[in-house]
Amino acid sequence: MPSQLGTMLLIANPAAQNGRGADAATEAAHLLRTAVGEQALDVVLTERPGHAVALAAAADGYDTVLALGGDGIIHEVAGGLMERAVDVRPALGIVPVGSGNDYARTLGMSCKVEHACAQLLNAAPHPADLGRVNGHWFVETLSFGLDAAIALDTVERRKRTGRTGTILYAEAGIDQLLHHLDARRYTASFDGGAPVAGASITFAVQIGPSYGGGFKICPNARFDDGLFDVCIAHPPIGVAGAALIFALAKSGRHTGFKQMEFRRVRTLHVEFDEVPPAQMDGELIEATTFDVSIEPRALNVLLPA
Ligand SMILES: Nc1ncnc2c1ncn2[C@@H]1O[C@H](COP(=O)(O)OP(=O)(O)OP(=O)(O)O)[C@@H](O)[C@H]1O
Questions:
Q1: Does the keyword Cell division apply (predicted)?
Q2: Is the pTM of this model over 0.90?
Q3: How far is residue 124's CA from residue 144's CA, in Å, rounded to a whole number?
């Protein structure tokens, strides 16, 4: 079958989803090669964190680069592709094999390898916005506070207890809600406006709607509208209130609470009193000051038909 995707490079994280990435890469390579021919697809497995950035940056001669893994590997591949000049920048496709899969939700990609490959074979490129924070690119989410603390807690907890998946996230979430509902003081300037001082429990800067493994924190965010959607949860929020807001945020029904502030912006400068727990596409970022800007329609991504 002829493919519109041209020559493809599949960059796969064998360690994604606790090691399932390796088998998923074999399955995806078989399915794609069966459809497009042996010659049209090269496959490379990442060997360490950060490796996918270099692999994508060096993707000479490919029309399409596919990232197989979780949001972390998509983040790295997108960052590498953005190091390439625009006229030699392949389109990005994703085969979601992660724990959170937030970008997959935003793009409408299936988390079943077989279905995702079928979607890719019929996909069309569409320009997507990317975010930039302190020199790093991100595809979906940047956030400070509670959800970032949960994400970071899972890493330590996974090592300590060996737990994975929903149980791991539920334990980390309950622990953070009960014991670490910290308000963090910040000063923020939106679109170059006058600085605004405030305190936040969670402060999310979204390209698409999804963060934290499927929470629709900014339910109306669009990944191609040239704007960030910002959601700031202000104190006071008690444990019961936070649990309710989190439960409702799963389906984006938390927006009416008076503690929630929403904005749409192109740039943001935010300074915290001390280093907050912070994540971009699920990866740790450590700083007290964050300069954030949107690059509209920066990268062609493959969207299911
Ligand atoms: N070969 C490798 N060995 C160990 N870690 C790797 C390797 N290649 C990449 N990584 C790192 O693994 C981390 C997680 O990757 P990824 O997001 O693909 O999977 P995940 O954690 O299962 O999914 P999610 O981000 O959705 O939770 C990233 O920080 C990435 O840099």
A1: no
A2: yes
A3: 34
Structural contact between residues 132 and 298, judged by C-beta atoms closer than 8 angstroms: no
pLDDT band at 2 (very low <50, low <70, confident <90, very high): very low
Q: Which atom of ligand 1 is nearest to the CA of 14?
A: 1
Alpha-carbon distance 143 to 268, whole Å?
12
Say how many Å lie between the CA of residue 235 and the centre of ligand 1: 33
- Most ligand 1 atoms within 8 A of CB, residue of 13, 106, 113, 158 to mutate: 13
The 10s digit of each residue's pLDDT in 238-256 is 888 988 998 899 899 999 9
Q: Are 275 and 286 in contact (CB under 8 A)?
A: yes
Query: CA 177 to CA 242: how far, in whole Å?
Result: 7
**How far is 279 from 141, CA to CA, in rounded Å?**
8
Q: What residue owns the CA closest to ligand 1's atom 30?
A: 49
Encode pLDDT of 4-45 as tens digits: 899 999 999 999 988 999 999 999 999 999 999 999 999 999
Q: How far is the CA of 106 from the centre of ligand 1 (A)?
A: 19
Q: How far is CA 289 from CA 18, 150, 188, in A?
A: 33, 21, 10
Match 């399409």 to its residue by tokens: 64
Helix axes 146-161, 165-179, angle to 10 degrees: 130
The span from the CA of 189 to the CA of 218, in Å, is 19
Question: How many CA atoms lie within 13 Å of 70's alpha carbon, on the beta-carbon side?
Answer: 21
CA 83: distance to chain centroid? 18
β-strands 8-12, 64-69 pairing: parallel
Give the Cα separation of 54 and 202 in Å (integer).
Answer: 32
d(CA 244, CA 226): 31
Helical ranges in the chain per DSSP H: 16-36, 51-57, 71-81, 102-107, 113-121, 146-161, 165-179, 239-249
